[in-house]
Amino acid sequence: MNILFCTSEAYPLIKTGGLADVSGSLPKALLQLEHDIRLAMPAYPAALERAGALSEVSCLKLAGSDTPVRILRGRLPDSEVALYLVDAPEYFDRRGNPYLQADGRDWPDNAARFALFARACVSLSLGEGDPTWRAKLVHCNDWQTGLVPALLSQRAERPATLFTIHNLSYQGLFPASTFEALQLPHALWSIDGLEFHNQLSFIKGGIANADHITTVSPTYAREIRSEAFGYGLEGLLEHRSADLSGILNGIDPDTWNPGTDPRIARRYDVHTLQHKLFNKFTLQRDHGLPVSSQPLVLGYVGRLVEQKGVDLIVEILDQLAAHPVQVVALGAGEQALELQLREAARRYPRQVSIYAGYDEQLAHRLQAGADALLIPSRYEPCGLNQMYAQFYGTVPIARRTGGLADTIVDFNQATLDGRSATGLCFDDDSPEALLATCLSALSLYRNHRVDWWKLVIAGMQRDFSWTDSATRYSELYAALLHGDLADYARALRQREQHPPLSPRPRQAGQPLH
Ligand code: ADP
Ligand code: GLC
Hints:
By secondary structure, this protein is α/β, with parallel strands linked by helices. Helix content is 39%, strand content 17%. The longest helix is centred in the C-terminal third of the chain and has 17 residues, at 431-447. The structure holds adenosine-5'-diphosphate and alpha-D-glucopyranose.
């Protein structure tokens, strides 16, 4: 099936978070299922530099751009996935973060930038961008592509549309006057279209107009229909609930695999777990912490934003420091959080270390070297870090929400005995709950090491690859094309009501003790 996968970031071309990981790996998995899936992304400088050979396939005149927009064709690096880069230098020839200026504020013309990108995607899907190819289905991701299903809804002959919500809190909201400025079809200015409390909402374009909507975990698909998680869109999502489903993200074992990872100090798998200790020592040494197997090393990797509950970590650092614990954090984002972490690192130089910034290599080394990963997210649509952590034998300590709830098997006597426990979860978004769970992890690590290893090994043996989820997308694409969505939704709901009880083992595990 010809599928156009529209995204604003894709690893290894450009990345700010998990959307890039998904956009760089799901299309590869779908290609293996024999789909002719092609990626469309803006031609940021980083993408132009990393994409390798590119050829111009067309030059489009699009509303919103004074100059013709070039469509460049190449390949997603290290894959056979065809790539279209939308080259509009006035909007995309900017270094750094694709959405933010150097001072951390949004680019003031983000609406125009992503409206232009959406128009280019529409043209590509209809066979105008590349005269040799047109799409049967367009798969859009997050608000930056929300206008694609909206614009396509105005066309008599159009491909099927799927909109995936990776994070509902980023909505692409702009003043109502932007609607006129972007010269969008008037029919789209309605409560069933792009209007959201008299503002222009890009994400609503996807949610209201796509033939089907997915989110990146079944639990988040339920959560966003409630006031607490819906950011004002819960009513619309409830209204569309028959066309809304959750498909878990997978991970790309070509990039994240402790057995082959070139970025870590020493590679390991479930049979050579002693090498994980070498990675722990390397992490401690690199971060100026005393090198020892004794303390429990707690890692944090992620954006420094409210969503991730970093403030909860900050709040418990004083108490944690009274225990044999070290904390290594890697993150970029809100300055206040960064400063608080730096301050704690100054107070506890032998126990707390923070690297403020974005560092791909360190993210891998942290996953390999930490004993446990802190993920106290207030909400988490899916989360990839907890999956990487489990694969790397690093025990997640996480809030039971969204994809975290769907991918971590919480430790208790039954799950421990059944060798399915892979992490420690808590419910309240309070520092007390996080601290109590960290101290349980510490007790397990120091006093019940055999049980600790059971968690480590069970996590490493789980299959987080795209195999299952890519098949789900493939089934959904087929249902969308053949119009049997009701059957698809029924089957999906049944699966969600009866999820598999135990994790899928990767291979027969070899206990260490
Ligand atoms: P989100 O998409 O909400 O940021 P995910 O857990 O889905 O959260 O994905 C985050 C991805 O971004 C992971 O691949 C993680 O390693 C990476 N990442 C986040 N912050 C950093 C950072 N400061 N340096 C390097 N990688 C980071
Ligand atoms: C978003 C979410 C994260 C998810 C990622 C990829 O950024 O915050 O939970 O894993 O998208 O889908």
